[in-house]
Design goal:
Blueprint (H helix, E strand, L loop, with lengths): L2 E6 L3 H12 L4 E5 L12 E2 L1 H10 L5 H4 L5 E6 L2 E7 L12 E2 L2 H14 L5 E2 L3 E7 L2 E6 L4 E9 L6 H6 L5 E3 L4 E9 L6 E6 L5 E5 L7 E7 L16 H16 L4 E11 L2 E4 L4 E2 L2 E3 L5 E2 L7 H20 L9 H26 L3 H14 L3 H12 L28 E3 L5 E3 L8 E5 L15 E6 L6 E4 L5 E5 L2 H12 L4
Helix pairs in contact: 1-4, 1-7, 2-7, 7-8
Length: 499
């Protein structure tokens, strides 16, 4: 067995999964069809939940210091400010506030962490085929190598080869016509403390400040449904030069501002599709991230949801690989993560429909009814809370509990202060990288069930609660109570027969 887990795809999801597995002592191999790491920004916003995941994995690094903190979104209708939405940390002791940071930098920090754990992605090495038997998966790579592995995880994007070879369908629908995207240096007087959008008859346009030493790099996103200049070729692929020329034209046209468009860092175009895999598992093969779900970029939910998939699957696979849990535990991955993806798809699809509407009734609802609502403080707090994904709970899933005092099993546990086993002051999330935490009161026992082997640490709680809490490696509450015997029984029932 060359590796216990083969991860296909070295984007944020695949790298985070590999980090989580290595932290739990699992042998992992990562392959990617690309010739090397991506240098373009692609996704460029990471909400609070994403910062927490990176922190638990030890991959947050200097990202908070490098990022822009453009926490306000101002939308104009003509030259009139229509609404101003303020984002920020909802005050739940998160690892970092929302960050405007290139996906390439996030991947860089994850690669740095993974290298420290002894694994380097294998570039230019694609999966071409895979088959399963009772003992595991045989994967064929583009180098001609045949790899035997216990588990195969597809983190290889919307066109996932792993999804295809696993026979998993992912129905989808197109939600928009063409968007233009440009990371470009701009000379203008627009405030860099936030993101700005303009509602215009020819299409929505947004500008977001991007981190750069020169301080003039912006992400420009322009809806371009009629961008054919009269020749009827609006939805054909444009060259980079054509994209740049269109951006140079639509920027002053839609913003009403004087702007000097300088050199681009990245130019692209895309249409928005919604897609959700019917299943996240087929035997020994799993899907995570964009391979399992694809949706609109609005709200910065794509990379965030993929990181959550990776962290959830990593601790479950680790227990099974190490013989501490039966395979039935792996079915809870889809049961917990797919309903969340459905919620995210529903929300981003609704935002897309509002943003790209072109009929008079739709514009009236958007401009006169929806937009003013976002000026209300409670709506802004709700928007921040929703986008952050700090609300995510699995209490309705197979490992959760729907009733009882909060937090309930399945709920996120905040990064509370505690004392480490050596008595020093610490915090909960600092101990969760691939590990379970048993939070015990001052008068409680520090005994840890042998069911978790060396994957659990006992921490003394500092909040005065008299209960013992078992916290999962992904920061969600697993069990709470006062009887260690009940905890052991819960673990036995939940983890199932040892393999």
């Amino acid at each position: 067995m060359v590796s216990q887990v083969l991860v296909v795809g070295a984007g944020p999801t695949g790298l985070a999964l590999a980090c989580g597995l290595r932290l739990a002592g699992v042998e992992v191999r990562v392959v990617d069809r690309a010739d090397g790491p991506a240098t373009t920004s692609r996704a460029n916003f990471l909400h609070a939940r994403g910062g927490e995941v990176l922190d638990r994995l030890g991959a947050l690094g200097s990202l908070p210091e490098e990022s822009e903190h453009a926490m306000a979104v101002t939308t104009y209708l003509g030259d009139r400010p229509l609404m101003r939405l303020r984002f920020g940390d909802p005050g739940l002791r998160t690892a970092a506030p929302p960050m405007v940071i290139s996906q390439a930098r996030v991947e860089g920090e994850l690669r740095r962490r993974l290298a420290g754990l002894g694994v380097e992605p294998e570039w230019g090495n694609a999966l071409t085929a895979a088959s399963q038997d009772d003992e595991g998966v045989t994967a064929t790579l583009s180098t001609g190598e045949r790899v035997r592995t216990a588990w195969l995880v597809g983190c290889d994007g919307t066109g996932s080869t792993v999804r295809r070879v696993a026979g998993i369908t992912a129905p989808g629908v197109r939600l928009s016509e063409r968007f233009l995207l440009a990371d470009v240096h701009l000379g203008w007087d627009l405030d860099r403390s936030g993101t700005t959008g303009w509602i215009h008859p020819s299409g929505l346009l947004g500008a977001m400040p991007m981190p750069h030493p020169r301080g003039n790099l912006w992400r420009v996103l322009a809806y371009d449904p009629d961008g054919d200049d009269g020749d009827g070729t609006s939805q054909e692929r444009l060259t980079e030069q054509q994209i740049l020329e269109r951006v140079r034209r639509v920027l002053p046209e839609r913003t009403g501002r004087r702007v000097v468009v300088g050199e681009p860092e990245w130019l692209s175009q895309f249409t928005i599709h919604r897609r959700l895999a019917d299943h996240y598992r087929a035997g020994g093969i799993f899907l995570a991230g964009d391979a399992a779900h694809a949706h609109a970029p609005f709200g910065g939910q794509g990379m965030l949801t993929g990181l959550g998939d990776a962290e959830n699957l990593a601790w479950k696979l680790a227990l099974v690989v190490r013989g501490l849990a039966g395979e039935r535990l792996l079915d809870t991955y889809e049961a917990e993560r797919r309903p969340l993806a459905k919620d995210v798809l529903r929300g981003t699809s609704a935002v897309t429909a509002i943003d790209v509407t072109r009929n008079a009734a739709g514009r009236f609802v958007r401009d006169r009814l929806v937009a003013p609502l976002f000026g209300l403080p409670w709506v802004q707090r709700k928007a921040t809370w929703t986008a952050s994904q700090l609300w995510v709970t699995y209490r309705r899933g197979p490992l959760g509990r729907r009733s009882g005092p909060a937090p309930r099993p399945g709920d996120r546990v905040a990064d509370v202060p505690c004392r480490a086993p050596d008595g020093t002051a610490s915090r909960l999330h600092a101990h969760l990288g691939g590990m379970w935490a048993v939070l015990v009161p001052d008068t409680g026992t520090t005994a840890i069930s042998t069911r978790l082997g060396d994957l659990a640490v006992a921490l003394t709680r500092e909040d005065g609660r008299a209960e013992t809490w078992l916290v999962r490696p992904d920061g969600h509450l697993a069990w709470r109570g006062s009887d260690p015997g009940e905890l052991d029984t819960w673990l036995e029932e939940t983890l199932g027969r040892r393999t």
